[in-house]
Amino acid sequence: MLEIKNLHVKLEDEDKQILKGLDLTVEAGKVHAIMGPNGSGKSTLSYVLSGRDGYEVTEGSATLAGEDLLELDPEERAALGVFLAFQYPVEIPGVGNMTFLRTAVNSQRKARGEEELSAADFLKSIRAKAKELKIDADMLKRPVNVGFSGGEKKRNEILQMAMLEPKMCILDETDSGLDVDAMKLVAEGVNALRDEGRGFLVITHYQRLLDHIKPDVVHILADGKIVKTGGPELAMEVENNGYAGILAEVS
Ligand code: ADP
Ligand code: MG
Ligand code: MG
């Protein structure tokens, strides 16, 4: 699904190299977790994959189902099936949540050459998905994320993800700032979307999210590179011993 080879990324405006030869393959149907110390480049990786400005790829490649992602603008990547759930979801005053989602869903369908969803089909689909995520009708009508609590914003992101049906879901510290119940809801939402045709990259600082979203593979990212790859036990090792032991072992 997602194949990243020897990715080197620097800041556009500064002489600062952030990713330094990152290799990563996420297969369809699999959940890969990335853990790593603060400042190791985890968010940069998610931004570069989604096409955010400010970063320059100096070497390497990133493809989704064989398509060169780095050549595409952010909208084209989204239409291809890349979805990034942010650490800090944006508020959009004046735009109703439901209107926003309908526009997003239909513009992606259009970009893929598919027919728009009818108002009735859209409504049926969003109501069912909102119910699963315990998002009430009122939250669907309010402006996007405005006045939402941290937990509501994250659940709303999972709703966006569920509606857009992406091929590659990237969650960047979606668990940060959530209490245990909100985190469980987010995890359940993600688990409900696990599918043979879909890959996940779950970036997290803490093991606790991975108790609820069981990853197939865990990677440790340090200083711009994947330095260790293993199974769920690797996340336990981080939880118990921190990163120091792993970093000493690989250096
Ligand atoms: P992580 O998500 O693993 O904590 P980041 O990808 O956010 O790491 O950051 C990696 C490094 O790059 C950090 O040293 C960070 O300060 C720096 N960095 C990332 N983006 C920017 C930016 N836009 N401007 C300045 N420094 C940045
Ligand atoms: Mg950070
Ligand atoms: Mg980060």
Automatic annotation (TrEMBL):
SUPFAM superfamilies: P-loop containing nucleoside triphosphate hydrolases. It comes from Pseudophaeobacter arcticus. Signal peptide: none annotated. The keyword Nucleotide-binding applies. Residues 2-248 form the ABC transporter domain. Pfam families: ABC_tran (PF00005). InterPro entries: AAA+_ATPase, ABC_transporter-like_ATP-bd, ABC_transporter-like_CS, FeS-cluster_ATPase_SufC, P-loop_NTPase. SMART domains: AAA. Keywords: ATP-binding, Nucleotide-binding. PROSITE patterns: ABC_TRANSPORTER_1, ABC_TRANSPORTER_2. The keyword Transmembrane does not apply. This is Fe-S cluster assembly ATPase SufC. Belongs to the ABC transporter superfamily. Ycf16 family. NCBIfam families: sufC (TIGR01978).
